[in-house]
Amino acid sequence: MRVSETLIPTLREDPGEAETVSHRYMLRAGMIRKVAAGIYTYLPLGLRVLRKIEKIVREEMNRAGAQEVLMPVASPAELWRETGRWDFYGKELLRFKDRHERDFCLGPTHEEVITDLFRREVRSYRQMPLNFYQIQTKFRDEIRPRFGLMRGREFIMKDAYSFDRDEAGARLSYQKMYDAYNRIFARCGLTFRPVEADTGLIGGTSSHEFMVLAETGEETIVYSEEGTYAANVERAEVLPPDASELPAPRPLTAVSTPGRRTVEEVTKFLKIAPTQLVKTLLYTTGKDTVAVLVRGDHDVNEIKVKHLLGATDVELVVPERVPELTGAPVGYAGPVGLKNIRVLADWAVKAMANFVVGANKADTHFVDANWARDFTVDHFADLRNAQAGDPSPRQDGTLKTAKGIEVGHVFMLGTKYSQAMKATFLDAQGQEQLAVMGCYGIGVSRVAAASVEQNHDAKGIKWPIPIAPFHVTLLPLSQSEPVTQLASSLYRSMQESGIEVLWDDRDERAGVKFNDADLIGAPFHLVIGEKGLAQGQVELKVRQTGDTKKIAPDQALPTLTTLIQAAS
């Protein structure tokens, strides 16, 4: 492909809207353009990357025995009402009415549609197991779309759904997808890690996320460097501290803490460590209000609180309601004397004595509070985020943290959807049984963005060979006849050999061509200059490392072929 014949509108400056590395470089490299908040057009180079990723996904899904289908973008409300998700999914579900006033939505995921297909078409256990997948545009009406392709409203996704006769079969299907995902992301040239995760809005019994490791990731994972344990921080278990005898309780004392509301302010004023303070946070489920206690240096894990309460959602009580519930402004809530509110406490609080809590009175805290004497805890549980230094819940070392970008997720759904939608089959005895399901998603467009987050430098993108828009950028540095003739000859021979080449045939300065080549990020740059050609040489640059070497023009094709095949 010639640059002069292709829409590649590169930008010299960072766009003001760009928030992350991938957002900035994909805009600057002319790969995407914003249409509306969280909605993008893919230009030729960006689309080539997506098609490369899709090809790898298809090959591995087919290899794992899945069958490709294509489901509609719009789905009727009746299907979503059967599972209860029409209301449960919330405002991320973009709803609309057709001309007959019938309710529809744009599919953010397709459990309902595929389960409806199964119950209509599958009758016998002899037709199972089944695994269907599609690569399709999804829509989720994110409240704050940001980071370009990382958190858009419209995105390209591969979603798959398995149907098995029993739990054993479902576990086998899950493992096949888990293994396929490992192959997919390895083939995409990503550094990644599968981690245990929460099932979220999809539901089900267990799940794993596949995280691309990148410092710019918005997710935190914890892992045991010495062992195999790894989990999203939302899912990571925290073990109770070892039981030990608590010191004798000291008298409870109220102290004045004027204007000190935060952990940092209170502990500095009282000259204590955050480990000697207990935070009290008030949460509402919409029907109930609870107080959650955690140590001063810990953070509440709202997903764990939600699961403990069996709630659809939990959120912090709005500041305006705090005085009504505690009698004090925000920053002074505490469990002592708290009325008509259940108290939940993290395990770490159970191992504390003589600690500081809010006194439910303005500008006041209690020191030397003790949970067994001064207030009642209704339930102790694991309610905090795991953090670096915690022991691994698998007892295989100490936890460390890393940042990651979720690019894939596999779920064991069980019978959540088949039961709600009566998706049954007849077993060998002629008895009706519920299909046991799994679902498996890959954010195709997010894989592209995550790759940029992991593979870039100050000049631009450094695409891994398998998903690069082109293998080689051909850079003739002048319009002289010898340079142009050699460029034309190499261009033809690379195309005939299956090497994907972008020929920068523009009459532009060398600096402009070099800058654009680095920005676009093809794995190899082949530079043809008059001076080098006079010495019988062209220059080959490896974008990933920056290494360059001089080679004879007739060695360019075999050298590039060897390098590309080694990464395939």
Concise summary:
The protein is of the alpha+beta class and 568 residues long.
Structure, described:
The chain is an alpha+beta fold. It folds into 3 domains: 3-237 and 400-453, Bira Bifunctional Protein, Domain 2 (BirA Bifunctional Protein, domain 2); 253-381, YbaK protein (Alpha-Beta Complex), CATH 3.90.960.10; 470-566, Anticodon-binding domain (Rossmann fold, 3-Layer(aba) Sandwich). It has 17 helices and 31 strands. The strands form 8 sheets. Strands 3, 7, 8, 9, 10, 11, 12, 21 and 24 form a 9-stranded mixed sheet that branches. It has a 5-stranded mixed sheet with strand order 16-14-15-17-20. Strand 27 (472-476), helix 14 (481-496) and strand 28 form a beta-alpha-beta unit. Helix 1 (21-28) packs across helix 13, helix 2 (44-63) packs antiparallel against helix 6 and helix 2 (44-63) packs across helix 13. It is globular. The model has no long low-confidence stretch (mean pLDDT 94).
Give the tags.
globular, alpha+beta, 31 strands, 28% strand, nine-stranded mixed β-sheet, five-stranded mixed β-sheet, 3 domains, 17 helices, Rossmann fold
Morphology: globular
Assembly form of the protein: single chain
Determine the structural class based on helices, strands and strand pairing: alpha+beta
Kindly report the average pLDDT value.
Answer: 94
Task: Extract low-pLDDT stretches.
Answer: none
Number of β-strand runs: 31
Beta fraction of the residues?
Answer: 25-35%
- Which architecture name of the largest domain does CATH use? 2-Layer Sandwich
At CATH level 3, the topology of the largest domain is: BirA Bifunctional Protein, domain 2
- Radius of gyration, CA atoms, in whole angstroms: 29 Å
**Overall number of structural domains:** 3
DSSP helix count? Answer: 17
How does the major sheet shape up?
9 strands, mixed
What percentage of residues falls in helices of 4 or more residues?
A: 25-40%
- Look at the structure and name the CATH superfamily of the largest domain: Bira Bifunctional Protein, Domain 2
Distance between the termini: 21 Å
